[in-house]
Amino acid sequence: MMESALTARDRVGMQDFVLLENHTSEVAFIENLRKRFKENLIYTYIGSVLVSMNPYKDLEIYTKQHMDRYRGVNFYEVSPHIYAVADNAYRSMRTERRDQCILISGESGAGKTEASKKVLQYYAITCPASEHVQTVKDRLLQSNPVLEAFGNAKTLRNDNSSRFGKYMDIQFDFKGAPVGGHIINYLLEKSRVVHQSHGERNFHIFYQLIEGGEDDLLRRLGLEKNAQQYQYLVKGNCPKVSSINDRNDWKIVRKALSVIGFTDDEELLNIIASVLHLGNVQYGGEDSGSAYITTETQIKYLARLLGVDGTVLKEALTHKKIIAKGEELMSPLNQEQAASARDALSKAIYGRTFTWLVNKINGSLAFKNASVIGLLDIYGFEVFQNNSFEQFCINYCNEKLQQLFIELTLKSEQEEYEAEGITWEPVQYFNNKIICDLVEEKFKGIISILDEECLRPGDASDITFLEKLENTVGGHAHFLTHKLADGKTRKIMGREEFRLIHYAGEVNYNVNGFLDKNNDLLFRNLKSIYLSICLAKLMEILMSKEPSYVRCIKPNDAKQAGRFDEVLIRHQVKYLGLMENLRVRRAGFAYRRRYETFLQRYKSLCPDTWPNWDGRLVDGVSTLVKHLGYKPEEYKLGRTKIFIRFPKTLFATEDALEVRKHSLGMSYSQKTKYRKMRQSAIKIQAWWRGILACREAKRRREAANTIRRSVFIKGFIYRHQPRCPENEYFLDYVRYSFLMKLHRSLPKTVLDKSWPTPPPALVVVRYICHESVIKTIIDSSRCEMRDYKMVASEIFKDKKDNYPQSVPKLFVGSRLSDDCANIIHPSPQYAVPVTKYDRKGYKARNRQLLLMANSAIIVEEAKLKQRIDYSSLKGISVSSLSDGMFVLHVACEDNKQKGDVVLQSEHVIEALTKVAICAEKMNSININQGSIKFNVAQGKEGIIDFTSGSELLIAKAKNGHLSVVSTAD
Ligand SMILES: Nc1ncnc2c1ncn2[C@@H]1O[C@H](COP(=O)(O)OP(=O)(O)OP(=O)(O)O)[C@@H](O)[C@H]1O
Ligand SMILES: [Mg+2]
């Protein structure tokens, strides 16, 4: 139901049948359809069900703009459309994460297949897509022409009639993009392959191949470019149809086949051609009555196309296999039997090819487990002059769909009432379960009886089947035969017929061929009850999904635009169960809407709710409807929605709204004028206030500047005077600016002398600040440094010549470059580069001395050369001069040690102080005059002689000693 329907109700009828005042009147129903059809308004709702009339002309309502109009919009906000149904299902799938299905029903030519294509197109165009999705979309769309070529035919009712039922799942990923699909086909009308009624054709593909096929191709297939040549194509005497362009369609189908991924359709075409050849196989009769084949050329082509041996094929077409006394025998067929065997083969080949094709398409659609929207396009009730097994199956299927439809509609109605806390009033409706049971019940139903008759031994026939029906279900209220009927009915019923009283009406079925046709189904599916299993599966699929319905109606039998055949339409309204549907939908309340929507629409009708209602929504709606004078029996308030029983209550409210809108419109224009004037006034005021404020600010700024200028100048003149009222402001200002500047650029180190020059009044500040900076910088390392320096002084003061030079130098933790220091782990307490003199030749080598927690180590670029545990360090010797030589004396008992170590360092005072502290050897440092003796390995002794000179020189002397000449400084 739509709000737009409420306003448009007088112009083009009701957009929703639920709003018909007289909802039980079929006349009113048809009238509404007629009104709208005349205006090309082919879509009308019954609640959420879409009723669609076939316009038999192209309407401009399927453009991209139309699609956009329906995207993400509430059902009731826009006029009825197939896109609204598609969008609604899509959105429910996305938001509620429930699988959906759209059931499209209606009789032949009503527009089911067109509707399903529109839905598919809607998804293909509006849904998000990626490159991969584009392929899937293309394949989904292209599956249509292929399936239509092989499964559709020209009938009396429809030039493009689907001769199979189709259920298609469209799959969507989590982003809502179509990513796959799956098709299930039902009940292909195979009998059409071998026979067509007058004015009808075989499946399109045969004509397309013959009309459109390239010469080379036809030659290869042994076909002529003339449909009249083929027995299977001439039965209906209708090779050409004005609305069909076979040649063009052939191109479309070939292209579609390639999109779907048939890279090589040779086999497929071989089979289609072989069916045509089979049809032309003719028989002659021998005197014995056995049939023989008179058309050798056909056999030649057939053998090649089907890839079988010619003689085997010939035998198969003229004999049947029988088993006698456990032995297989070939028994010849008579002419009639052979012809029917040939036709059976053709039907079987075609039927299997169709199933194979569907499977192939499914394979190309990459079905994954995702959210789905199913589309069911299955033929509706069929009632002909003579109805056979096919109609029986189709009508049974529709009976089931109707049951499902009523059940689910009632169920959803009931659930909504329950959710809203409104008592459910039972609805009287025609429950067609009784008819479904009559057909499908186990052991007692018509299908069971038929299966039984097919499988029982003995001479079962269509007539024995009919008799069995009379005996078993003869008493059923919805079943009748010639024998069981009264005199009046007998006149219009054949002796070979049985009648079913469907929910939609009575249909007589002729039992001729029932057994054969059922056998066909039976053996295909290993003797299981194919028909009911097949439909049970379909029902299961549909039950697991949330359904939407599209009910298609054709306006006339002449396929003409603009012609409204009332009798035909009334018939369909009945067969589609639309009145029943409306009754169920209207059983309780005609209209329901969420409180916020209702209040938003009608709030202007009550002073308490206009312009805004602040309280609870339900109270707002209650206040509003009371003010409008709703009687208690006319409405109910649920948890989130208001339910209105009769359309007239709603219409009265709508009319009141129209009136109110008018007066609101008046006051609205006045209000707009007032608002405009007020805004202008405010703007002028603001502008004027701005100007005044600017003037005042300017005045103040000037005054301040004047004052500042005179005070500042005076202050400057008196700046060297002691603080006095004249310079007070100036001095404070200067001090403030200097301190602020200093604060921003305080030196970082003690040595940094780049201080901002203080003003005379603040010179003292500089010293205070400097001291404080030194203090902060020094404070942390100060204690440690003092300790080291104390130790150095203790050891070396007045004893070693180069000690004084070390005093002003800060001791550091490492004398190595950062690169070297960082490789050593754990990091040493002290590190210094040294020169090591080997004990024999006194060769000098660059090494690093590292002081660790428990030992001193000598390394060569992070490679350990020697470790001296502090515990084995006996003593340290240096000269009194200003050289950097020192000897580490190592205890000899330690075998690992190679003797004493002779080293030299530029930072000898620092290094030895550190060694003394780390190894706690402050008292083990010997300062020697002249020479130092030290241990070379294996008890030998080495000597270093120290002398003073002008240049530092360390070399092996002729006496074998190491001679060190120290410089004076
Ligand atoms: N919405 C539409 N707009 C224009 N023409 C339409 C529309 N719907 C149907 N038609 C016309 O009606 C013809 C029959 O429609 P369609 O093939 O969809 O019927 P059907 O219900 O699928 O019939 P069948 O049961 O025989 O398959 C279409 O070929 C087309 O010419
Ligand atoms: Mg169709």
From TrEMBL:
- Gene symbol? myo1cb
Enumerate the Gene Ontology biological process terms: actin filament organization; actin filament-based movement; endocytosis; system development
- Taxonomically, the superkingdom here is Eukaryota
Full protein name: Unconventional myosin-Ic-like
Q: Which family does it belong to?
A: Belongs to the TRAFAC class myosin-kinesin ATPase superfamily. Myosin family.
Domain Myosin motor, by residue range, is 13-658
Write down the PROSITE patterns for this protein, in alphabetical order.
IQ (PS50096), MYOSIN_MOTOR (PS51456), TH1 (PS51757)
Residues binding ATP, per UniProt: G106, E107, S108, G109, A110, G111, K112, T113
Subcellular localization(s) per the UniProt record: Cell membrane; Cell projection; Cytoplasm, Cell cortex
Domain TH1 residues, every copy: 785-968
Q: What is its main location?
A: membrane
| InterPro entries named in the record | Kinesin_motor_dom_sf (IPR036961), Myosin_head_motor_dom-like (IPR001609), Myosin_TH1 (IPR010926), MYSc_Myo1 (IPR036072), P-loop_NTPase (IPR027417)
Question: Would I find Transcription regulation among this entry's keywords?
Answer: no
Gene Ontology cellular component annotations, sorted alphabetically: cell cortex; microvillus; myosin complex; plasma membrane
Q: Where is this region: Actin-binding?
A: 535-557
GO MF terms listed in the record are: actin filament binding; ATP binding; microfilament motor activity
Name the UniProt key words of this record, in alphabetical order.
Answer: Actin-binding, ATP-binding, Cell membrane, Cell projection, Cytoplasm, Membrane, Methylation, Motor protein, Myosin, Nucleotide-binding, Repeat
